[in-house]
């Protein structure tokens, strides 16, 4: 755990150094596309204090000065399966964004989907040495949380304090300088598959870039697609990507649950390709222009020209009704929504006050999806678009860029995590110098 703690703090320091220099890149590695945004941080007071806990809580003025996307290659279910192909795609996106920004970028913050995320709830409690809560008391309370045995081959991606309590008072955002006898903390711990993370880190290093932070796509999509009231009262963000569908649940402005369904928009495209016997590129075009999941009385009479370049005139001149296309797409979309409902039920989503569901991601643009999702999920559903960021090109304002825009907000307004606090000396190994210093202070 100490090695993980130090690795995360190293990335935090890299990010702060890059932000101090004023420029950093955002990299969204998805199954269907790879997006790169170059950010410039304006204003001398980049880390002034704000609401929340920890040294990184603050506000930063950001502006997008470069943006580029390319078709993703070598990524399946949000995980890298062909290193060289993914490396070329990342280099293409980063180079194009740097040319647009007219600046070289050495540090990137990356987000990814898939990797089989798993959520845990941790809690810890400590007695206060002094009646007033200090920064060290917060660190001791976080370190008192018992980490579950999440098994070999797993890596902690996020460890965020979501609640503090002093004596009988709970729901505190920032307990520092408050008076009490006992301090309790609740942490949301998110683990992912270690090999998937290692492959992404190795791929970014092969591109001559330094990794200054990582985040889950479902988490950052929720940051950009959910409005403030939805994050406060309890809402779920469903990020329908190409290879995986991310789920994140927010309450009191913190993510309290995350999961992933290994089905996405590309599976719908594959169903169309197999059902109509056409290439994947043509199936994607038909899905985008004519696709839907809710049939109407006009769909039987609306004919869609299939087209093609096989050389067989009769095969290339085929037409199908839109009702037939909907009949191919709807079962797969229903399967995705049913899997999402099972995971939300397991998370206790029906116990939250608001229970709002927001659909985002490229797959959310299918016509009629919000209506079908409302029937399957049984909750209020709306389509979410990412928040506006200064300088963001018009082409990058759609739901498909919710992850990239959310990563911009994640970089500018970082939520404090476990490793943003100095780890107490007594949790270091026995030969640690800090532990020796603590013993001398306590005994001399």
Briefly, what is this?
The chain has helices at residues 2-21, 83-101, 135-143, 194-206, 217-225, 228-233, 265-276, 280-290, 313-316, 322-346, 369-377, 402-412, 433-443; strands spanning 23-29, 33-42, 61-71, 75-76, 79-80, 107-112, 118-127, 154-166, 169-172, 182-193, 210-216, 235-240, 245-251, 254-261, 303-305, 319-321, 356-360, 381-383. The chain is an alpha+beta fold and 444 residues long. It has a domain at 118-193: Dna Ligase, domain 1, CATH 3.30.1490.110.
Polypeptide structure, described:
With 444 residues, this protein is α+β, with helices and mostly antiparallel strands. The chain has a domain at 118-193: Dna Ligase, domain 1. It is built from 13 helices and 18 strands. Strands 3-2-1-6-11 form a five-stranded mixed sheet, with helices on both faces. The longest helix has 25 residues, at 322-346.
Whole-number mean pLDDT? 85
- The helix content, as a percent range, equals 25-40%
Distance between the termini: 30 Å
Shape descriptor reads globular
Q: Per DSSP, what share of the residues sits in E-state strands of 2 or more residues?
A: 25-35%
Oligomer: single chain
Largest sheet: 5 strands, mixed
- CATH architectural category of the domain at 118-193: 2-Layer Sandwich
- Compute the number of strand runs: 18
Total helical segments: 13
- Whole-number radius of gyration? 24 Å
Q: Structural class from helices and strands?
A: alpha+beta
Stretches where pLDDT is under 50 for at least 5 consecutive residues are 44-51, 54-59, 428-433
CATH topology (level 3) name of the domain at 118-193: Dna Ligase, domain 1
CATH class of the domain at 118-193: Alpha Beta
Strand order across the biggest sheet? 3-2-1-6-11
């Amino acid at each position: 755990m100490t090695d993980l703690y130090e690795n995360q703090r190293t990335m935090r320091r890299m990010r702060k150094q890059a932000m101090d220099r004023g420029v950093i890149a955002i990299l969204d590695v998805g199954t269907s596309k790879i997006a790169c945004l170059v950010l410039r941080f304006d204003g001398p007071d980049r880390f002034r204090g704000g609401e929340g806990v920890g040294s990184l809580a603050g506000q930063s003025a950001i502006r997008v000065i470069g943006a580029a996307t390319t078709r993703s290659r070598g990524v399946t279910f949000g995980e890298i399966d062909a290193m060289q192909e993914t490396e070329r795609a990342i280099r293409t996106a980063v180079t194009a964004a740097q040319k647009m920004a007219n600046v070289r970028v050495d540090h990137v913050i990356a987000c990814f989907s898939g990797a089989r995320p798993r959520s845990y709830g941790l809690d810890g409690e400590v007695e206060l040495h002094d009646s007033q809560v200090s920064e060290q008391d917060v660190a001791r309370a976080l370190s008192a949380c018992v980490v579950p045995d999440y098994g070999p081959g797993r890596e902690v991606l996020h460890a965020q304090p979501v609640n503090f309590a002093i004596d009988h008072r709970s729901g505190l955002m920032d307990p520092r300088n408050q008076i009490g006898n006992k301090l309790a903390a609740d942490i949301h711990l998110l683990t992912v598959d270690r090999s998937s993370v290692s492959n992404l880190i190795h791929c970014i290093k092969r591109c001559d870039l330094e990794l200054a932070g990582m985040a889950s796509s479902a988490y950052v999509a929720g940051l950009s697609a959910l409005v403030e009231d939805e994050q406060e009262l309890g809402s779920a963000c469903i990020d329908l990507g190409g290879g995986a569908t991310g789920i994140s649940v927010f309450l009191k402005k913190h993510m309290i649950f995350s999961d992933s369904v290994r089905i996405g928009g590309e599976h719908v495209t594959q169903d169309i390709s197999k059902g109509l016997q056409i290439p994947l590129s043509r199936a994607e075009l038909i899905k985008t222009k004519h696709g839907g999941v809710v049939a109407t009385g006009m769909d039987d009479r609306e004919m869609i020209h299939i087209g093609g370049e096989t050389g067989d005139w009769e095969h290339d001149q085929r037409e199908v009704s839109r009702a037939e296309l909907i009949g191919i797409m709807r079962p797969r979309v229903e399967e995705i929504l049913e899997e999402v409902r099972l995971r939300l039920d397991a998370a206790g989503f029906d116990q939250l006050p608001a229970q709002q569901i927001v659909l985002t991601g490229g797959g959310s643009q299918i016509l009629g999806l919000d209506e079908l999702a409302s029937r399957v999920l049984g909750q209020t559903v709306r389509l979410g678009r990412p928040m506006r960021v200064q300088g963001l090109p018009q082409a990058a304002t759609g739901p498909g860029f919710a992850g990239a825009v959310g990563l911009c907000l994640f970089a500018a307004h970082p939520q404090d995590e476990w490793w943003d606090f100095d780890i107490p000396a007594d949790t270091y190994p026995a030969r640690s110098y800090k532990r020796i210093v603590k013993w001398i202070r306590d005994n001399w």
